[in-house]
């Protein structure tokens, strides 16, 4: 009586849940889940799963036994369920007796000379009986379930074996095709029918989660075949130079890790996007200077020079950039080249602060920032080798400076009157000279690079070595 009440109440609950819960449903025709004959006509002796929530549902199985006068018959009295991992290794074996504590009888009816029985098992009860290894494998999408009938021979109405929810108890209980087919001399129809009772899957219980690596993604994990109601956990790893962007398809979200209950087949594609680096330039010409500019660089575009902002301050010259606002020495020259490795290292942002020197000091003059030297310092080295921008008298690589030659006594090739035109006698002249090379201060057309772009003053003039010796001799006389 208690069992009948349980079945009726459970049927009402299932009907309500199937009607109102928002999840994938398998349509069950009216009366099929409660009528053994109708169920068998629709699904035969297949084991089928029908959900009633996101994590649980009913597993149904129906049997048919002919009411014949034969003295020898066969009968299914339960199921042996095997859980196997993805390589086929058995993780656990469980038994369910038809009409036992787990797979209980729902309905029985006689019709057309046969008896039909409908049994049901909740997925929750099945999960509760799993051991740790089997449960973990199912939760990772790396396991499957196979069911084999537990069959006996019935002679003159007497069962030749018994079982319970832990397995066979007495007599002969057959769980393989070879066992039951060899137990008696059966009809040809029976031999054929036995194939339908072994190595069966529970239809509608397992679903495939397809995890795919899209553009910018190195690998994804978590895909596989999952039991209904278990949690799939997908993870994506971006390629070098990329950040994870999003999931598309049946999954969505902007996090590398994606978790969800498996209630259907799904296809999820992970995508990445190229790393970006925002460089915030702070003019930093004084303690209260808040002027700022931004440059964005994207991975994969090769060597890119720092932006030529063109900031000017009276009496000062911008000689480079530092990573600290109070730094006295520039970590990077103006127009330094930024490599992909630097973008990876400092993404998503970095702050650079201007380093200024007074205009009249003998600071290292930077090359034209609009045409940076590709052999210049690597910005990935915060203290690159090479001349110190703060060194008042640097050795500039590649200069044509030579020591003046001793006076040979030969007549000077430059006439004194030529020098008098630029430097008239009797007038005090202040000047500033440097020994430099043309290749650092002329553009491709051999024109002087203007001072605003790191070059020379507009009134600068080149002088030959011989003329320089004469000029110096006159000035020092």
From TrEMBL:
Look up keyword Membrane and say if it applies: yes
Where are stretches of biased composition, namely Basic and acidic residues?
398-423
Using the record's annotation, list all stretches that form the Bacterial repeat domain: 214-266
Would the keyword Secreted be found if you checked this record's keyword annotation? no
**Compositionally biased spans, kind Acidic residues:** 361-371
Extent of Pro residues compositional bias: 372-389
In this chain, the stretch annotated as Disordered covers 360-423
Which keywords are on file for this protein?
Answer: Membrane, Transmembrane, Transmembrane helix
Regions that span the bilayer? 7-23
Q: Name the chain's protein.
A: Bacterial repeat domain-containing protein
Q: What is the native source organism of this protein? A: Roseburia faecis
């Amino acid at each position: 009586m208690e069992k009948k009440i349980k079945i009726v109440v459970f049927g009402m609950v299932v009907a309500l849940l199937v009607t109102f819960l928002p999840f994938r449903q398998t349509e069950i025709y009216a009366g099929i889940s409660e009528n053994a004959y109708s169920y068998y006509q629709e699904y035969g002796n297949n084991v089928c799963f029908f959900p009633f929530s996101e994590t649980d549902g009913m597993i149904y199985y129906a049997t048919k036994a002919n009411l014949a006068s034969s003295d020898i018959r066969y009968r299914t009295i339960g199921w042996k369920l095997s859980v196997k991992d993805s390589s086929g290794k058995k993780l656990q074996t469980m038994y369910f007796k038809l009409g036992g504590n787990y797979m209980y009888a729902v309905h029985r009816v006689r019709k057309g000379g046969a008896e039909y029985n409908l049994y049901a098992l909740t997925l929750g009860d099945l999960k509760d009986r799993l051991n740790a290894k089997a449960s973990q494998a199912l939760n990772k999408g790396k396991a499957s379930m196979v069911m084999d009938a537990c069959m006996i021979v019935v002679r003159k109405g007497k069962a030749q074996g018994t079982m319970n929810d832990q397995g066979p108890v007495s007599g002969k209980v057959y769980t393989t095709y070879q066992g039951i087919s060899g137990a008696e001399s059966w009809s040809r129809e029976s031999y054929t029918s036995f194939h339908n009772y072994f190595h069966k899957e529970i239809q509608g219980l397992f679903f495939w989660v397809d995890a795919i690596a899209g553009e910018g993604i190195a690998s994804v994990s978590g895909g596989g075949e999952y039991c209904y109601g278990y949690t799939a956990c997908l993870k994506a790893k971006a390629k070098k130079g990329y950040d994870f962007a999003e999931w598309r398809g049946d999954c969505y979200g902007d996090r590398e890790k994606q978790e969800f209950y498996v209630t259907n087949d799904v296809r999820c594609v992970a995508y990445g996007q190229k790393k970006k680096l925002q460089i915030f330039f702070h003019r930093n010409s004084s303690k209260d200077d808040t002027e700022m500019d931004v440059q964005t660089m994207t991975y994969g575009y090769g060597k890119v020079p720092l932006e030529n902002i063109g900031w000017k301050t009276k009496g000062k010259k911008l000689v480079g950039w530092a990573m600290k606002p109070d730094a006295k020495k520039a970590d990077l020259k103006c127009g330094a080249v930024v490599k992909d490795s630097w973008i990876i290292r400092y993404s998503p942002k970095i702050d650079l602060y201007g380093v200024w020197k007074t205009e009249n000091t003998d600071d290292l003059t930077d090359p034209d920032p609009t045409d940076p030297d590709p052999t210049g310092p690597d910005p990935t080295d915060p203290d690159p080798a090479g001349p110190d921008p703060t060194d008042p008298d640097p050795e500039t690589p590649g200069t044509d400076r030579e020591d003046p030659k001793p006076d040979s006594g030969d007549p000077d090739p430059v006439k004194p009157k030529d020098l008098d035109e630029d430097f008239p006698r009797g007038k005090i002249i202040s000047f500033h000279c440097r020994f430099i090379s043309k290749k650092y201060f002329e553009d491709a057309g051999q024109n002087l690079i203007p001072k605003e772009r790191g070059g020379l003053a507009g009134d600068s003039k080149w002088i030959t070595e011989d003329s320089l010796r004469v000029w110096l001799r006159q000035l020092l006389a």
